[in-house]
Design a protein that fits this description.
single chain; about 230 residues; 9-stranded mixed β-sheet
Length: about 230
Amino acid sequence: MRVLSVVHGPTVPGGVFDQVVEAAGNELERWVVPLGGAPQPPESYDAVMVFGGAMHPDQDEHFGWLEREATFLRNALEEDVPVVGVCLGAQMLARAAGAWVAPARSAEIGWFEVELTPEGRADPVLGVLPPRTEAFQWHHYTFGIPDGGTELARSEVCTQGVRLGRRAWGLQFHAEVTLPMVQSWVAEDSNELPVAAEAFLAETEARIEGWNELGRKLCAAFLETASR
């Protein structure tokens, strides 16, 4: 498979998702959107993965490239290209599909319970997760369910998973994150943490191995669905 990994900076790569793609022998191409350039048309790829970033999905006045990314994702949806978006990537996917994006009623930074909806438990991608799980999160924004979309997972604060059409998924939680990624985010934005950095990292170190196993299963399920 030819897979495009869409990223927004050096500390927000594809994590275990990129690892799964490459370990399976697939071709992985990266588009670092803020650096400019452009990928091939979305229909050139067998799957597209879109990851997180420190910016928000409606900050076009500060990040002029956001609309360029939204246009690419809009075209991917129109061409029925399999897409998975994570955190900012999910928000951008919702924006591309015409849904609202806005600040959540509270930030979720750390480990929060996510529960699958009945549709989520039956979903070929999110259904590989337990019905309830403690998921790693780092976000201030959320998004609406696009027309024709299906909510697949929720937390107490907001939607955590959505399916758009047949082959596009948005995940608000960070299924891709690795320990080095979290360490870099803490170093950059320790002022956002709900607890002391040492406690935050200790909890993450204790949880990350099991979380990465679930992330790998989720990405493998996405690639399996995309290959059909």
